Amino acid sequence: MGIVIIGFITSFVIVLFATPSLIKVAKLKHLVDEPTEERKLHSHSIPTIGGIIIFAATIFSYSLWFPTGSLSLNENSSELVQSFNQFKYLVASLLILFFVGVKDDIIGTAPIKKLGAHFAVGFILVVMGGIKITNMQGIFGFHELADWAAILLSIFVYIIIVNGLNLIDGIDGLAAGIGLISALLFGVWFFLTKDVSLALLSGCLVGALLGFLVFNFSPARLFMGDSGSMIIGAIISVLAIRFIEHDTANLPSFLQDLHVPLLAMSILSYPLVDTMRVFFIRAVQGNSPFSADKNHIHHRLIRLGYSHRRTVITLYALNFLVVTVMFLLKNLNPTLSFVLLFIASFAIYLSPFLIKLKDQ
Q1: Which end of the chain is less crowded, N or C, counting CB atoms within 10 A of the terminal residue's CB?
Q2: C-alpha dihedral sign at 149, 152, 158, 164
Q3: Tens digit of pLDDT for each residue in 149-169?
Q4: Measured distance CA(79)–CA(63) in Å, rounded
Q5: In 3-state terms, what secondary structure has residue 47?
Q6: CA gyration radius for the chain?
Q7: Model's pTM, two decimal places?
């Protein structure tokens, strides 16, 4: 536990003390987001390169405190080799996303090029790194997956999570807060399973995001940009896949009966539901799924008169509510639990659309 706390503190302190200088440099070099488009919710220019400090703090802290001497509380050397190899491929992948994201934040990048980068990263993580979902654990009757199916599913999961975190980054503190909640819940799980390496990665990301929220929570002084949302999405996708695949033998008995893939979905429910919803709307309207609009759930809350702070806190609470619903479904058949969780998630997140706007 000690090394996880040290990693958390290290990344938090780095972000907290380095970010003011980053904001100053961004303003001097005019690396800012101007509120020139109707969909923008801020009223003045704000630096957009916060992803640089999130990336630097997380990777530095994780590299510095990586437990090479004792990977887990069980000191399993085979797990050490596996985690070190996956760490190697994760760093290589994050470097690709970092440079693609920084370029997009500064001068823009075509969506097709970003998608190409995602497929490259998906290949590195899933095929080379072996970070993939191999068992559906009974959902729709599927258990062990063929290798080709595991690869395709895992790359799809990676792309959905990364784009989901990127798409919800439209209001102060939302993407960073949802990423923090996800990393925190995954981190607690990994600690309970005695996997210090993954608990440390989660802790480093939590520290970086908590420090970033000091500057990103409304009223924001810094945006994370695509460099930040893609970095967070990639790390969260790795944590989610390892979470699904992890041995649960060391967990407390009340957690061992959970449908782990569904728990992962509930933790990431907000970006998943919002992404599916806006992609569906854009497809129906004949628009590109990557075109920007004001159809997100947070836009609806803003139109209902919620402040930025009240909006993000509401969405944090709804995210925890969906996780609670998952715990209530743990004794049901996996397929039935999936269907009920799917319905409950959409019902919870789309509830703001049942409230009539004041001007209607």
Answers
A1: C
A2: negative
A3: 999 999 999 999 999 999 998
A4: 17
A5: strand
A6: 20
A7: 0.91
